[in-house]
Amino acid sequence: MPRSAERLGQEPARGNRLPPELAPPIGSYMWMGGSGRTYTCRVHTLRGCPMFPRAIAILVRRDGEDRRRIMAVLSCEHVSSSLNRAEVRRLGARIGANEVHLVASRTSRVARAGICDDLSATWGSPVPSSLTHH
């Protein structure tokens, strides 16, 4: 009986792959804000960004030498998870990001804005730090 491609460490057949948005995170990463507080993120490719509830999205450009540069820090405030993802993908593509680092936050809008300000104080954010929609 032949072994499956997965057991041999080979790529599965194209028809067996999950759509990018259903793929698990590609890892985790920790950013430090200006306050010294650290924020642990789930890392996704821009294309593989899943739908997500209100959260902080850090749009990152990772280069070939594994260096990361924050392009934007966003407080995603849509009630709809699909709209949060759409906004992040659109903006990320526009500014050249290739990763989305998501900080899950069950806090208030004001607290999420504070996290954005903390990260932006250290890393900068060349675009507005909030996608606020009701």
What would your notes on this structure say?
The protein is 22% helix and 29% strand. It has 134 residues and is of the alpha+beta class. The protein has a six-stranded mixed sheet with strand order 1-2-5-3-4-6, with helices on both faces. The radius of gyration is 16 Å and the shape is globular. The relative contact order is 0.21.
Topology:
Layout: E1 27-32, E2 38-45, E3 55-62, E4 68-76, H1 81-95, E5 99-104, H2 109-123, E6 130-131
Parallel strand pairs: 4-6
Antiparallel strand pairs: 1-2, 2-5, 3-4, 3-5
**Tertiary shape:** globular
Strand order of the largest sheet: 1-2-5-3-4-6
Compute the average pLDDT: 80
Radius of gyration: 16 Å
SSE sequence, one letter per element: EEEEHEHE
Unreliable runs: 1-13, 127-134
**What helical percentage do the residues reach?**
10-25%
Major sheet attributes: 6 strands, mixed
What structural class do helix, strand and pairing data support? alpha+beta
Number of helical stretches of at least 4 residues: 2
Distance between the termini: 57 Å
Percentage beta strand: 25-35%
**What's the total count of β strands?**
6
